Amino acid sequence: MANRNGSSNSFSRRQFLVYSAIAAAGVSALTGCSTPRPRRLGAGDKLRIACVGVGGKGHSDVSHCGKEEIVALCDADERQAVQTRKQFPNAKFYFDWREMLEKEEDNIDAVTVSTPDHLHAIIASRAIKMGKHVYCQKPLTQTVHEARYLRKLANDYKVVTQMGNQGSSEDGLRRAVELVQGGVIGPV
User: Fold this and answer.
1) Phi, psi angle pair for 43, to nearest 5°
2) CA nearest 101: which of 147, 65, 50, 152?
3) Model-level pTM?
4) Nearest to 39 by CA among 61, 68, 65
């Protein structure tokens, strides 16, 4: 088979793709690279959580999961993090979420994202690709494309995700839903 220059190719484009896929699979098998998967937890195990954005709304998000093990805290503004750092003195503190995720990858199971809106999808996608469960404040994404991308990632990496909608995450509203669904107040 000749290409545009008149020289012959040693194999077709299809063969190239097949051989490339085989090579990539072989390299990942040899290097141990595979899709990260969440750690399996036993009944008594606590989630190990890293929190990005820990001032303001981030503080309440961290506090709500405070019965779990808070491993790391991250905030670009140290002044915003003072109260949360006092509440969780054993958690390592970082200014850069990328550094935190890189250094704490083996120590965490989940990540909370309570940063300014434009960072939500970026941080969530990185955490999911690491096989970490994610709780992310609203808005989860800036575009429909980003939302579909995160949905696909969560399915591919078999992680649990939730977007914070305050009221829908609170125990009182959940109890009210149970009562309505249980027929306690009759038809609605």
Assistant:
1) -60, -35
2) 50
3) 0.71
4) 68
